[in-house]
Amino acid sequence: FSLDYQHVQVPFEITLWIMLASLAKIGFHLYNKLPSVVPESCLLIFVGLIMGGIIYGLNDRSPPVMDSDIFFLYLLPPIVLDAGYFMPSRPFFENIGTILLYAVVGTIWNVFGIGFSLYGICQVKAFRLQDVSLLHNLLFGSLIAAVDPVAVLAVFEEIHVNEKLHILVFGESLLNDAVTVVLYKLFRSFCEMPTIKSVDVFAGVGKFFVVGLGGVLVGLSFGFTAAFTTRFTKDIRVIEPLFVFLYSYLSYLTAEMFHLSGIVAIISCAMGMKRYVEANISLKSHTTVKYFMKMWSSVSDTLIFIFLGVSTIGENHEWNWPYICFTVIFCLIWRALGVLVLTFFVNRFHVNTITSKDQFIIAYGGLRGAICFSLVFLLPDFHRKKLFIAATTVVILFTVFVQGMTIRPLVDLLAVKRKRESAPTVGEQIHIRFLDHLLAGIEDISGHWGQYYWKDKLEYFNSKYLQKILLREYDQPKSSIVLLYEKLERKHAIELAQAGQLGHGPAQPSFLAVTTDQKLEDTPNPDVLDNMQEILARNLYRIR
Amino acid sequence: FSLDYQHVQVPFEITLWIMLASLAKIGFHLYNKLPSVVPESCLLIFVGLIMGGIIYGLNDRSPPVMDSDIFFLYLLPPIVLDAGYFMPSRPFFENIGTILLYAVVGTIWNVFGIGFSLYGICQVKAFRLQDVSLLHNLLFGSLIAAVDPVAVLAVFEEIHVNEKLHILVFGESLLNDAVTVVLYKLFRSFCEMPTIKSVDVFAGVGKFFVVGLGGVLVGLSFGFTAAFTTRFTKDIRVIEPLFVFLYSYLSYLTAEMFHLSGIVAIISCAMGMKRYVEANISLKSHTTVKYFMKMWSSVSDTLIFIFLGVSTIGENHEWNWPYICFTVIFCLIWRALGVLVLTFFVNRFHVNTITSKDQFIIAYGGLRGAICFSLVFLLPDFHRKKLFIAATTVVILFTVFVQGMTIRPLVDLLAVKRKRESAPTVGEQIHIRFLDHLLAGIEDISGHWGQYYWKDKLEYFNSKYLQKILLREYDQPKSSIVLLYEKLERKHAIELAQAGQLGHGPAQPSFLAVTTDQKLEDTPNPDVLDNMQEILARNLYRIR
């Protein structure tokens, strides 16, 4: 009897790590009180710290740090795909201007703010930091400034703030990837250049647009190809879900290959394909996609936080009190200032303003996470790299533990507006739709190219061209109201069947019984609803 | 703008191969006539041959062959897991004796038959094969004798023969893995030994039991651990499906690590965990497990056949007409003889005999596939390895193309009994259950330890101990009849909801309307059914 561990080592260890992560998750939930006080991300980092300590104690050398390649190629994409696929598109596009302002201008503000002020600290002779150049400080600023989508998602999913606030912080954390990629690579190449010409700086500015818009283009083209492919999967339902994953992942990898923003690409891909793919694939495939995506991103998320903890233990830190403390302080100050200034401008152009409570949560919710951590390890070797690693680790632990654990009590204390729990009623949906058409008409008449104008044009382009190419059974698609109705009916039917009432008792009026009880008798049946919707849509279009 | 392909190469190429496989599958189904004439496996090998030809033409060197590690560690487990998880347990256990006889004795018969007769061929001077020793011939016999589960599954899923015939061939192809592993490793180590003692031969015989039973033990222990784990996933439904995959894969890897039969382990794990896991996890998790497993195994299957085709092209073949032709002939003859002889004995002990038509299909369905192919590449280097590779390739292509393409017409021609399409009715289920209890009682009284006796004991052990440990909500579990009823009701409810009839028209009697119309009025409601079942079960037990 012999043991052949070598042979199975790679898959065996991967499976064991995933198993550990999953079991840790189960463990937390066995005690119901724990997750309600401490965010799961903190608990997972804590488990990682213990694991790292054990490995360190047993081997007497630093435990393996999280490989940046593994993080960027395998752990990050599932989380971002999940985020993009289930992104609520309405609030996202309604606030896209504000989100972009925070993501682009805000991140640049933070990078330069943190970079220059840390350079100022380095000039103090007593701190013995004079060998850290301005460029190195800016490089460090570029990696520490970006808010991390994984950390934000982990914390904000548990505190249930209102939809707008959530999308502002979360959207920023996703879209700032383009800025981070550009600035990080720019400063890194500047560090290796002998002299920097002004041409290089301008090329850097140009790159912003290339990296961001290139990501969007790559993502959309893969997304539409995915939708087109699912037109032909009617006879082999079994591999339908695969295409959603394959094309999104390819869009991410392609973007990374061309040094574009992979996160932006996968999000565009997911948002672009979603409505067409969902119309083409079967309901079971849809369930599989949905639950598998959630499962996968949850596992990735868990692994990332555990590895963060494991990687913290070890001997790759150089401790310098002033530099590390001032990094934390500057991260907080510059973000707060940035949010205040940018929101001031945003509020001047909007009726629905961002309140000061919201501003506080936006500033406070600027958590750092595994992206910074992976970027700092990717730095070229230079003599202060270990200082940067230490500072990054402290910032991440500070934001995840201190901010992550206090944000929920703060949200309660400030009475920040929460997310509404119930789905919009049919009446609300009709009104929202009606107002959309109305505002599009007003914008059209007044010659203002606002969001409703563009949304309307896009809808027109979609129904005129895209749907014909990308959908299998092309006829006037069911409106979201009818779909909602069908979903509620299905849910109700299953509940009835489970209670064993179907067909045994007298006929029960089931329509929308789930949401309201008064409406029961006078709600129209689906044909009437469909008709109503069609009249609304047709008449509002015809006027123009 | 630079391209960084190196960075993303590994995941990019894996994704592209999977994409190619999936698109090929879609392509075949676009023309409805094609898959009904040619089995998909043949088409996929054909695509692989073309791909291999292109790669060979472009690079002017042999395309990469399928890595045996990749095959055994990543491609095979999903297929076997799928097979084990959805194995119909009743026909499997009813025919376990026959299956084991075919798998163990039949495979040994084939190995020695093919090995010795090929050795005879090698003695003919004109063929110039005198340097191939008896041991090498036996080693070759041990890898070429085993029927391949992947190939069998691919062909038999399309021809829909009756359940018993299917389980005989398919069960044999799964369980012969233990025999193949033992004999292959035995002969390979004999090849490297200077002298062979009789002790080694006896140790080899002992290993059969260790490898087979060890696999079962490893599988069952992981299966029960998986079931136990899902007891605690109530609060985190999202990672439930993961445990099914993780534990099964771990059982496979652990078995491989200890040189046990991984296939046997993963099948025992899947069959052991299934009923408990299904009771513990949510319905959505169950759908995810089911569809993801099907998807994954379908993709693995596709990749295997494509790679088989790709690997065929190249310069690693040594052609020797007599050896290759006689290999094909001996494979056919020895299998036919083996099935005839073994079935003769089987039929003497059974009332429900295997007809001569069935015997023909069993013998003819002995397809070889990727397992042989991977094993032949794992052979230690010796001067006739390329001849063995060529012979294996020809046997695989012959069985998959010639036998795979003609088996469907033959099944039609012989009018082999087909699978019944409809699910058993409630009446049938009650009768089957009643007979089970009756036969268990008769066996008990007559002191005969037959299958019903053991099944009854196992059921008792299960409900007395296992269920209490492994199930979350332990109360008398619902019988399969009630579960079937609930499933039908749910289906019916969804259909009603989709037709928009729910709650609008008068109450329709829905119970079992899907299967029969006459029963409608007098069928009992679920409580009555439950009661009926309980009375049946209790009284039949109490008598003893």
TrEMBL record, chains A, B:
Put simply, this protein is called Sodium/hydrogen exchanger
Record domain Cation/H+ exchanger transmembrane: where: 19-411
This protein's membrane topology, according to the annotation, is: Multi-pass membrane protein
Protein family per UniProt: Belongs to the monovalent cation:proton antiporter 1 (CPA1) transporter (TC 2.A.36) family.
Database matches in Pfam families: Na_H_Exchanger
Q: Which residues cross the membrane?
A: 37-58, 70-87, 99-122, 134-155, 167-187, 208-229, 249-270, 291-309, 321-349, 361-382, 388-411
* GO biological process, alphabetically ordered: regulation of intracellular pH; sodium ion import across plasma membrane
Query: What compartments host this protein?
Result: Basolateral cell membrane
Molecular function GO terms recorded: potassium:proton antiporter activity; sodium:proton antiporter activity
Q: Which gene encodes it?
A: Slc9a2_0
User: From which domain of life does this come?
Assistant: Eukaryota
Q: Which InterPro entries match?
A: Cation/H_exchanger_CPA1 (IPR018422), Cation/H_exchanger_TM (IPR006153), NaH_exchanger (IPR004709), NHE-1-like (IPR001970)
List the GO terms this entry assigns under cellular component, sorted alphabetically: basolateral plasma membrane
Supply the source organism for this entry: Orthonyx spaldingii
Does the UniProt entry include the keyword Repressor?
no
Keyword Electron transport applies: no
Keyword annotations of the record: Antiport, Glycoprotein, Ion transport, Membrane, Phosphoprotein, Sodium, Sodium transport, Transmembrane, Transmembrane helix, Transport
